Amino acid sequence: MTSIVLTLLTALGLLIGIGLPISAGAQSYNWTGFYAGAQAGFAKPKDFVKYGGSSTGAPFDSLDQTISHRENGFAPGGQAGYNHQFGWIVPGLEADLGYMGFNGGRLSPPQFDPQQQTHAVSSGGLFGTVTGRLGIAVDRVLLYVKGGFAYANFRLGVTDSVPPLTTDATERLTYTGWTIGGGVEFALTQNWLIKTEYQFMDFGRKSISAVASDGITDTWKHDPSAHLIKLGLNYKF
Q1: Among the four 17, 132, 159, 234, which has the fewest Cβ within 10 Å?
Q2: How far apart, in whole angstroms, are the C-alpha atoms of residue 210 and residue 183?
Q3: Among 158, 154, 148, 153, which Cα is nearest to 93's?
Q4: How far is CA 77 from the centre of its chain?
């Protein structure tokens, strides 16, 4: 995570270095205005699952009870925002909403479940972000970084459907967290803009509990996140 933040901060430094020599008089295109559009991208969500204990109070500290798995998915959506240009600096605000489509799972590690009957399962849903942007305008090219609030509605859980001990700690919940990213946008015409962007989203952590067939309540902690690379088309009003 630290490497992602450092990379984006380095990118911002490079953008400033590019923009400093550019005077306001050299700009022929103005980025000020509202915009809205559509986007689609490749998503790589991850769910880090950790065992949170049981109603018996058993510590289970001696076992590595984690199941971490990544999936691949398609993420269409839309976005809207506003930019205001000050010379070569372009701050702005943006909100987007999309659907992250994925469905997968992974078996638990053998040191936790030697029979490997426990599965961490996940499926996608709606996601969105509300971010601030800071860009450097090089005429019709806008290089920017962004960061802010992220949320998602995913179905995550842990299941064991093999008797005699069965459980289904699976639930669809709304997760909230943060996002950081950056991209480059190009003005095709006075109104039509095309962009490519990378975002990392951390959706926070929630616990999901269920009563197993032996009457014991087990709790699992889910920490979902996602990498997203997308291509978008905007219309500037």
Answers
A1: 17
A2: 42
A3: 148
A4: 13
Tokens read off for 133: 């942007």
One digit per residue, pLDDT tens: the chain, 237 residues?
545 444 544 554 554 455 445 444 456 899 999 999 999 999 999 988 887 766 666 554 445 577 777 889 999 999 999 999 999 999 999 999 999 999 887 776 665 565 556 778 888 999 999 999 999 999 999 999 999 999 999 998 888 776 666 778 888 999 999 999 999 999 999 999 999 999 999 999 988 888 877 777 878 888 999 999 999 999 999
Cβ–Cβ < 8 Å for 144, 33: no
Paired tokens of 158: 């842990």
Residue 232 and residue 199 in contact, taking contact as beta carbons nearer than 8 Å: no
* DSSP E strand stretches across 31-118: 33-54, 66-70, 73-83, 89-107
Largest CA distance in the chain: 76
In angstroms, what CA-CA distances link 211 with 15, 63, 74, 114, 230? Answer: 53, 21, 34, 21, 40
Geometric angle at alpha carbon 18, from 15 and 21, rounded to 5°: 140
Q: Which two tokens stand for residue 4?
A: 């992602």
Closest to 213 (Cα-Cα) out of 169, 165, 168, 170: 165
Residue 108 DSSP class: P
Q: Look at residue 16 and give its three-state secondary structure.
A: helix
Region of 193 (left: φ > 0; alpha: ψ -120 to 50; beta: rest) is beta
